[in-house]
Each structure stands twice: as structure tokens, then as C-alpha cells.
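Sample A.
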Amino acid sequence: MSITPDIPELNDREKTVLEHIIRQYVMTAHPVGSRTISKQMDVALSAASIRNVMSDLEEKGFIDHPHTSAGRIPTDVGYRYYVDELVQEGQLRDTDRQLINLLMQSPESQDFEGLLKSCSSLLGKISHQLAVVSSPQIGSGRLRSLDLVQVSSNKILVILSIVTGLVKTMVLEIHSEYPREQLEQIKALLNERLAGLTLREIRETFHERIKDAHHDHGLIRLFIESSDKVFSDHLDPERVHIEGMLGVLDQPEFEDPAQLKKIVEIVENQNVIIHILDEVGNSSSLSIRIGSENKEVELQDYSIIATPYQYGPLNGTIGVFGPRRMDYARMIAVVQHVAKILCQ
């Protein structure tokens, strides 16, 4: 993380006052006054001296004051400077570590999809923010085998086993029941032509690889029509696990009905969150977006801390999403630690 070039530098006294304002505001959600800071600072500074420093910080755009209060609150610029220059490399709290270890040992966490859900639930509990975990992009995963199981007269279950050990399933609707011998023949054909290829390669060349097969066969035609969906990059149709709604709604920011409505709409329409997670997943490092740094207008009241995780050759993203007033040092440490667990 490095400071944005157009953010002005601060002297030591300004850094100290800004840090106290942000820590106090994160803890209380109330604008911070000079008297509060003077009581907390190790260096003896009068309230009048602190007011002068606060005035300089406000002029430089690091803090602002609500018109109803004499106290100050951080701006997006203030939070960005704090994250880039003042946050120390976070050590995971012992209580957070114990809770993470406890949940990771639960039966639900023993398979990968269960682990993803446990991680999102865990992040929500610890952070009191929205926890978001995307399923890994499996387009680069190689197909080990494909199986077909007739589950009813009009449905076939397609099971894709990926070399990493992940399994993707999808139900295809059919018009009539197929004899078991036919299913075995088609399964053998598909495995012969597709095993060892990545899902992305299969998607891009599927028609070419089975062009000499009997296209008049209904199931072959169905695979041709559904190949983009069956061999898509996404392991889980949900694509993203979001937990922690009740916790984040306890934040005082959502006492405002307009803010409450806004975050509910964001969760219900996940496309914006998915887009950001996909962007982070394509990078190789932690991403922190604060307020107006988000291009999407509907996200400019929020901050997002997210990092990619890797499961074998496959990539996904994990993070927290909530009001700009968050404990950045703690959230960074928790997100990075849980991401390491997913990589193991």
C-alpha cells in the first residue's frame, strides 16, 4: 500500500492528531472534539493547539465537521492517508485467532464449498461487516472426468471432477428418459474428447471436438447448446457467499432509513459486488477501496477490503464490505489470515 501521489504530506503533530481522530471516531461513531483528543494524547498539547492542528487538517481535506457538531470526522482522504501511512502491519488478535480456529474445525468446513460458507460466516461474526467470499474461477482447472446420472425422467445430473479435487454439478433438463447404455456411450465419448483440458479450452472448442458425433442425438445437441453453462468458470451458481447482514445493520450508519434501503438493495443485487471481487481476483495483492475511490456511485458510502486467495491453480476473492468507519488494521489482519487458510 502506498499513499496516493496527490494527497499532501503531514507533519508528525498532524499525523498524531489525525490518527487519534480516526481511532476515536471508529470506536464511537461520534464526531471528535479537541478536548477528547487532548485527554488521550501522550504529548501534552492544549485543546487550543489541537484545534489549530485540526483546522489545518480540515483545510488540507483530511477531516470535516458535520454542521450540527463542533467535532470532526475523517474524510475519504483522511482514511486513505491513515491506511497507507499510519496503520501498522496488523497482528491478529488472540480472540480472533481462537474463533477462526474453532470454526475451521467444524464439520461444515471439511469440504471446500462448506469451507467457503464457513469463512464468510466467520468474517461476518468477527467484523460486524458484510463478509463476501467468491467461489473460485475454475476456468483454468483441468477436467479429470465427467459423469452423467439420470435423476428423473426429465433431468440428468452432470458431474465434473476437476484435477484439484473440486467437483462441479449441474442439472440439465431433458425431454425423454435415456437408456443407461446410451448415457454410458455419451459419457465415454465426452471423457475421451475432453478429459485433461481446462474448462476454458472445452468451452472454446467444444463444438469442434464433437463435430463428428451424432448431432441428431438429443443429449449431444443439449450439451452443444449448454456448453457455456456446463463448462463455465464458476464453481457455484451463487458465485458469492455474503454473510453478516444482521451484524452490519447494528452499525449506527444504518439508523438512517435511506442508508438501510441502500445496503439492502446492494446485497439483493449482487452484480456490483461480484464485479469488484472479480477485479480483485485478477490481481495478486490486497485491495482497499474507500468511499469515493469506488467507481460505482452506490458504493461510495462504503469501504471494501478484499484479497485474492488461491486454491491450487484456481483463484477466488475474500473480503469485508461496510461503512467507511471501520477498524482497518484489524479487518486487514483478519481478511489476510482467513485468505491464507483457504490457500492451504
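Sample B.
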Amino acid sequence: MQFRLDEDQLAMRDAVRAFCADRFGLGDIAARDGSPSEPGLWTALAELGVLGVLADGAAAGIGIVEAALAFEQFGEHLAGGPVLWSTLAAPFVPGAADGKVRVAGVELTDGTTGPVVVEHAAECDVLLVLRDDRLEVCPRAELPPPVEGAPLDPLTPVVVFPYVPAGRVVGGVADARRLRRSGEILSAALLVGVAQGALDTARRHALERVQFGVPIGSFQAVKHLLADMYVRVELARSATYAAAATAADPRAGDAERAAHTAKLLAGEAGIANGRTAVQVLGGMGFTWDMLPHYFLKRAWVLENGFGTTTWHAARLGAAVGEEVGGKVRGDVGEVDGDLALS
């Protein structure tokens, strides 16, 4: 498979990067704590082409590679708002692709009672519910009064509902499976961006912070920390791009296994790089005035969406076990056949 990005994909990545630098700057990030998205953001995102990137040809996975490139930038700049679910919902919710309808979302297994935590629910127009075998849409007005709850990530406000009512069915089993896989890949892309942002923050500090007359980045112990961060983010990025490419063209490999691998590696990279950024910044890294805690908290939040690293590792292990078991059974069958012939 050819993994090289073409000129159009690179241009889109650069356009989204410039957009994020303008709309989601990290210089005064504390001003965004708990705040809703700025007016006009959704129109701008629609004009950029991000919200509708999965809407055309969704059944074939067209657009998932471009979406992954965009969401990597959103993760690196700690973008706010229900961008992920609005993008995933575009093929199923009219108005989501052009920014007229903002969509929050939640994954629920059948039989789930409550309470239910929904990110960005206060600024959504509808709630998309991803169940095991279907997709449902609930208008915001039909949701019950919320109960108390506090967010882990200050840039990801949440609302806690005692329960989520049954909504209008907008997709079946295949749609739910496809949306879940796209969610895994785009969540992985967000985590790759978070891991890259944490690395950039640690690297800048290591070059600027002087101790004993030299930058701390010249110390071998710090070099090793930064090198490990770089390896983690590049492995996760490669796996995420591969998952997106495989989803776009299933002939390239096992799309389900690729998505599991991407979310697993990206989750590990996001959390580990967030923690390491705190360590590199030392005493300052533990304070809320610095950037590392934002990256670490966002990684924790993203880790719990569309399957944790433990869940994906278990799925990969089961797939490998089935593959090996099938091969062993085949080998045993061949041996039995040879013995019978002899």
C-alpha cells in the first residue's frame, strides 16, 4: 500500500492547522476553560469542509483519511466543541454537515440505565446515541433535566443525565458498526495530535530552560524522555494513517484490526506523552498554569471514548488467538490425514 499523502490531503492538513492556530490558540488557553464554542465556529468548520467530510460516500469510507488528518490537528490544538460527533453524525443527521445542527453523542449498550455523561451536551441541538445494533437521535428538548457533574477536562464540559430516552432510529447494525469504526479512527487521530502537542510543549521547555549554564535538553536523561515521546507519537501516527487508509479501501487489509491497533497505540501515546510532559517541565509541570495538564486530561477523556486501550488490546488478542487456533487446527487436520493415508 502507498501511504504517501497527496497534494490535496497535504493542503487540507495545512489549512486545518492554520484554522486551529487562529481559532484554538494555546497562548491563552485558560480563557477557554468551561466556555462554549465561539459564535460562527460551526459555519467556519463547515466552510472548511471538515464537518461534511464523511457525508459523501460514507458507505465506502471515502473521506476518512482526510478526516483523520484534520482531527490530528484538532487534537494538537486541543479544539473544543462537539466536532467529533457532529462529523460522525453528518451522514445520518440533516444539517450536521453544513454546521446548522450541532450534534453531541454517547455510546450506550442495551440495558444501560444511568447516569449518562454527555460531552458538550449544553451546546448541542441533538444527541446521537450509538447502540450495539442501531443509531438513535434525540432532540435536546426531549432529554431529561441534568443532575450534578463536573468535567475531568476543563476544555470538555459535560452534562450528566439520569437516563437517555429512546430516540428516533436513523441507522441499523451496519451503520452503527461503521460509525463506531470511524469513531475509533478519529479518536485515535485526536490522541495522536494530543501526543504531538505534549511532545512539542516538552521539547520547547527543554530547549529554553537553562540549568547549570546549559539547556536541560542537553542532559541525557531528558533526551531519553523526549526520544521515547517521539517514538510513541510516530508509531501511533503510522497506525492511525494505516487504519484510515484501510477503512477507505478494505482491500488493503483487516479494517477492524487496524482500527483496534490505532486506538490502542494512540491511547498509550497520548497518556504517556502527557505524563512525560509534566515530568519534563518539573515543578512547573504540576501546576494548572502550564500546558501539560491540558494534554494529559484530554488524553484521559479520549482514552475512554470508543473503547479503552485495555478493551482494544483484548480484541486484538482474541483475533490473534483465533487466527493461531485456526492454523493449529488446520495443521492437526493435515497430520491426521497423513496418518490415515499411511
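B remarks: The longest strand covers residues 103-107. The chain has a mean pLDDT of 90.
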